[in-house]
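Researcher: Please generate the 3D structure of the following complex. Treat every line as part of one assembly.
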Amino acid sequence: MNPLLKEIRHNPMLWLLAFVPVVFAAAKVKPEAHTWLFALSVLAIVPLAALLSHATESVAAKTGDAAGGLLNATLGNLTELVIALTALRAGEYMLVKASIAGAIVTNTLFMLGASFLLGGLKHHVQEYNRVSARLQAGLLLLATVALLIPSAVATADSATKAMFTQPLSVGLAVLLIVTYGLGMLFSLGTHRELFASAELGEDGETPWPIGLALATLAGVTVLVALVSEIFVESVQKAAETFGMTPAFVGFIVVALVGGAAEMASAFSGARKNRLDLSVGIALGSASQIALFVAPVLVLLSYFIGPAPMDLQLWPGAVVMMLIATLTAAFITVGGRSAWFVGVLLLMVYLVFAMTLYLLPPQAH
Amino acid sequence: MNPLLKEIRHNPMLWLLAFVPVVFAAAKVKPEAHTWLFALSVLAIVPLAALLSHATESVAAKTGDAAGGLLNATLGNLTELVIALTALRAGEYMLVKASIAGAIVTNTLFMLGASFLLGGLKHHVQEYNRVSARLQAGLLLLATVALLIPSAVATADSATKAMFTQPLSVGLAVLLIVTYGLGMLFSLGTHRELFASAELGEDGETPWPIGLALATLAGVTVLVALVSEIFVESVQKAAETFGMTPAFVGFIVVALVGGAAEMASAFSGARKNRLDLSVGIALGSASQIALFVAPVLVLLSYFIGPAPMDLQLWPGAVVMMLIATLTAAFITVGGRSAWFVGVLLLMVYLVFAMTLYLLPPQAH
Amino acid sequence: MNPLLKEIRHNPMLWLLAFVPVVFAAAKVKPEAHTWLFALSVLAIVPLAALLSHATESVAAKTGDAAGGLLNATLGNLTELVIALTALRAGEYMLVKASIAGAIVTNTLFMLGASFLLGGLKHHVQEYNRVSARLQAGLLLLATVALLIPSAVATADSATKAMFTQPLSVGLAVLLIVTYGLGMLFSLGTHRELFASAELGEDGETPWPIGLALATLAGVTVLVALVSEIFVESVQKAAETFGMTPAFVGFIVVALVGGAAEMASAFSGARKNRLDLSVGIALGSASQIALFVAPVLVLLSYFIGPAPMDLQLWPGAVVMMLIATLTAAFITVGGRSAWFVGVLLLMVYLVFAMTLYLLPPQAH
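Model: Done. Output below.
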């Protein structure tokens, strides 16, 4: 029997896949029912994320955790890239920037923290490869500096500021992409042996054949992208209905749903005591967004957007990114984790979420 | 013979206990002699602090260093809590906030630094349990973030700001108290074994019986609280006489005298090479003030103050808290100490004290 | 044969020494040819720096790496001191401050980063004494705090600000010098054994006799100082010709050329797998400028400048110093290095350089 069908039969969560055609049909028939479309698209993303998780783990089982983690982060971030490209074409730069900053903060604090907490509730103390965590933390710090310095140094005079910010953003974008490439050369090439997993954990499930895994990976990613577009169109209106501020929607809601696929993989890795996979997905995905997705969007904005986009965020977003990155760097120095480490990260995330939820709309 | 009387006979510092009735009498007879009352109350607090130190060590000897350190921090912070509650009832929110921020900075930099210096002058290199230090540093970082984010994100518009700051402060207060409780569950419950002391040190003194120790702990704490009230009433006026700014008084003087009891314990632990006790008292006390005393005051302000109090500090205080916390986190990564580590912490504290001393009064 | 002449004959780079008399002659004959004088003085400083490097290594071979590193940093910073004193006498306080902050940032990011990169391209993984690196990082953090706090706490009112900034700067200067002295007592005195080198590396060259080494050290330092003065006079005008902003010149160009002598030593140490020497020079030099050169200039400004100089930098410079110091502290926690660690440090430096290069002139 086909392992994919077998998986769906044994895993009740995958029965939610029925919502995938429902959401497409609903979007066609009732495109103005935003609250319903929002709920349906979230329900459809969850099982797709679970499928993606199993397919990625099957590939990762063949390629080792480092390459598997990178693969996962790449495909998981397709969702974020699709969302951002849609918003970029529409000229909604505020939403693009908020979703980038929010994805970095959510991956660094929520995904990592929940992985530590979920893993820690099952395993007393967990170890992971801290060389890998420190590389990602270092890359994130660099990206945060690149986003922080223009704001810290810039003048208040908005005329000269635009003249200065635009070429600087292009220069910084190139710098970040080059560093990202060199980082991959380092971790997958010259110093690969430093990034090997510390342990393999107990592996209950049998991996799928590589062909099926790759096909599922590709197909499900496309479905996630399509459903995500409906989600983005409906989320702003639905959020207003629920009384959420735009800052909260861009930073928290879009980032949480956009990263659902990666979260399922990271959490399942943590429960199986493969914390290397979880840390690799969480920090790897954050640094990929910061050093690859964001600069690519800046460069693409010269071709597909109504006007060039710069890299300057509002000060509160930069402070949150800086705190998230420093916290992750501080937390991952030791290479060991227990449940309370996860609680600390999640609490910092809750402080941010609470502040953004209560923030008056005109504040940013 | 009663071990308490024996202790008093052999320790000349305890002869200063004679000043306790003197300060009460003076406060009754000459309530307007502020400079005298200030000097007398400081002289009375010193021997009480020394007694408290011995009593706490006796209990700690029976319960282990982690529980003993927590006990010490709890009772030592009663002083700070009494001071703050008095000021809260009088509606002096500026003084409450300054004494909270000052207590955190003083514990993290002065108490920890002086412990490292005093211990290091006697012992070449000292080791301590860095897992415990990192937990406290992590808690402090979280509390600093909770105090920093509202200021960093808030708008300049003061009307919407009040509407936003008040519910946010209540939410953050609840978050901090929950985290503090979970932190105790972690360090005293599920992962107790990680927080065991690295070494016990040479212990010269014989501990008191547990009954006498607990009775002394309770009685002396009450006396400290009563003397502290006279101290708080006189310190502002006395400070003016000596030409000190209000910022310096709230941040430095109140915090130093308010923490005298804990400092005596921490310094004596460091001299006896029980640095675990010192670090536990210094950082444990700082994180208890940040995650328990401060939020409790915010919540109590709805019942006993003239108006609700929020968690927003003036920017300079937040910067000092952030630097103090990051410095402590950086310093305690290694779990080893020598005298110069103490010098570095004390110098950062001196930079703060010097700045506050010279600050023009209208600045904050 | 004289080992100095032998060295010059075998090392083609030293043939550039011919430019030393040329630049002196040119400065006499054509003092207004700024672009030429700039180019000639850079060409003359390079071989002098190389000579200084070999002489210092010869002395270091006799005294151990820690003392050798200190010696190197002391003499290397003579250049910076001479530059700053010249500018101080002329009352150009902005240039003095920019060159101090620039030298700290350049040493911490560029010199350390390039050492890691050059060493890492030859050796797979390099180890160095992290106790020493952490001491220097701690000193740098203290100095950054001392420079940061006055700006963070100060009021906007410029009249009271001057009254407050001037005595505070003197107090902080004394504090920094005392800490620097205590740090030397610690690293060269009471806890010397912690700072011993982890390894010695392969040493191909035969060291010079100590007499020749010391004489070369002294004579070449004087020549560097004289050439540096011509360099400083010409650099501002030459920079305008090349379209560089004043901020870029003070922060980047002066710091890079002023530190050329130390860089030659640090890079050669890294290539020979003596990374202790490189890290000692880079961080030792940065902390010496922050804790010794800068405070001495503040105190000397009361005697030789037209008006007293304070320690306040423009906010962008403080942010850059803070980021450079935190990055160095984060990077050197582990005591191990590979080529990509150097890339990360250099990229942070490039972000700064790019921002300063594009910054509109009126911005600082």
